[in-house]
Design a protein that fits this description.
Blueprint lengths: L2 H25 L2 E4 L10 E6 L4 E6 L4 E4 L14 E5 L11 E3 L1 E4 L12 E4 L5 H7 L19 E6 L9 E12 L2 E4 L11 E4 L5 E8 L4 E5 L2 H10 L1
């Protein structure tokens, strides 16, 4: 075996290895976010439940936050449910916190994927939160047909247990399929991310809420016309 052939084989192996790493990096594309006071990072919050577990929530009003219904056991409640920390980043709490005293599910006791949405609320007055939220509003796109958005580039922001539970994690991917009227997206999901928002990359509009997934795939409940009306009536 001559030296030229050996060098070519080694070069080919190196290129294959580099390309393989690049593909895996794309699949697991994520950023740890430290500047949380801009864009949709500002609305993203950590919801620490009374049982010490946590979810992600999204500010939709002065003291109301959108999350997954399974984060409050699929039940309406007017009992203390935990605390929400808006725009939390590591040890920094730029917008203080809210004590959550009410939970409202989209459809109580329904564990169907497309119903897995809830709003949690507080009676607290948070001046720093209101200051930063002044003249800012979460952009929500009503999803008429899930199929119309298949192939679209998207991103999600949440507090993932596998990369540091107090830091926002932004993951990028694409909608790959209509999965029983929910979005199937090629991003990983881990504990703590339930309730994370799904946003269109080109418009930054919220189109869904994360309800489950694994290291390769995440599933999001779409914001339909009915759900958008419910949000507006309960926030």
């Amino acid at each position: 075996m001559n030296k030229k052939f050996i060098i070519m084989c080694l070069f080919g192996i190196l290129i294959f290895s580099l390309n393989d790493k690049e593909v895996r990096a794309d699949i697991n594309n994520k950023d740890i976010v430290t500047d949380t006071l801009n864009g949709n990072h500002l609305f993203t919050s950590k919801f620490e439940r009374a049982n010490s577990s946590w979810c992600t929530a999204i500010a939709v009003g002065n003291n109301s936050f959108l999350t997954s219904a399974h984060c409050i056991e699929f039940k309406d409640s007017k009992e203390p449910l935990g605390y929400v920390y808006p725009a939390l980043s590591g040890a920094s709490m730029p917008l203080s916190y809210f004590a959550i005293t009410e939970g409202i599910t989209y459809k109580e006791n329904s564990q169907v994927r497309v119903d897995d949405i809830a709003i949690v609320k507080s009676s607290d007055l948070n001046t720093s939160f209101n200051y930063y939220m002044k003249d800012k509003e979460l952009k929500i796109k009503v999803v008429d047909k899930v199929d119309d958005l298949v192939g679209k580039n998207v991103y999600t922001i949440g507090y993932a247990s596998d990369t540091g539970n107090n830091y926002q994690i932004k993951r990028r991917g694409a909608i790959t399929k209509n999965w029983n009227n929910a979005f199937k997206v090629d991003v990983s999901a881990s504990g703590g991310q339930s309730g994370s928002g799904l946003y269109l990359e080109d418009t930054n509009e919220l189109i869904g809420i994360l309800e489950g997934g694994d290291k390769n795939t995440a599933f999001f409940t779409p914001i339909t016309k009915e759900i958008k009306t419910w949000i507006d009536n309960n926030k």
